[in-house]
Amino acid sequence: MLIVFNKPFGVICKFSPEPGGRPTLADFIDVPDVYPAGRLDTDSEGLLLLTDDGALQARIASPRHKLGKVYWAQVENIPTEDALRALREGVDLGDFRTLPAGARRIDEPAGLWPRDPPIRHRAKIPTAWIEITLREGKNRQVRRMTARVGFPTLRLVRAAVGRITVDGLPPGQWREIDAGAPWRDP
Length: 186
Description:
There is one protein chain. This protein is of the alpha+beta class and 186 residues long. It has a single domain (2-176), classed as Alpha-L RNA-binding motif (Alpha-Beta Plaits, 2-Layer Sandwich), CATH 3.30.70.1560. Helices cover 13% and strands 27% of the residues. It is built from 3 helices and 9 strands, in the order βββαβαββαβββ. The protein has helices at 54-61, 81-89, 141-148; strands at 2-7, 35-36, 45-51, 69-76, 102-106, 127-134, 153-161, 164-165, 174-177. Strands 1, 2, 3, 4, 5, 6, 7, 8 and 9 form a 9-stranded mixed β-sheet that branches. A hairpin with a 2-residue loop joins β7 and β8. It is globular. It starts with a strand and ends in a 9-residue tail after the last strand.
């Protein structure tokens, strides 16, 4: 079984109850014995895959398989070509150097849902969108990368894992797909 879930902002990527009553996956998915294949931080949103197949879970989550994960990052200010080049070449984050990544400026993604709560708006500081494709996944990596090149992330959405996308799936909704879905990137 493979579940595609559009994780809303603020949802914790686990099924067990959270102190303080914060929402978890159990508030949205009532399917026994499925587990996230990878994670999304509580303050990130978008595509999360869940499965009951341990081998498939490892294949999706492990950087060893180099499965491309596409993120849309709304960043503070307008990224320079030098900053994008640094993201593409790999960024030294102090504790490790990131692998080369895909990085390009994009328009705000079509069909993107409003975030609840909205990001803080500051009239004198513009924002822009970057699409970043990673083949590794360290803790808070996209946020750390964009901050390191001088453009902090304000909103982060995972849009795709391999060829599986969040397109057409509203936040908080899920659907089951064929576990034999194509895993290689185009």
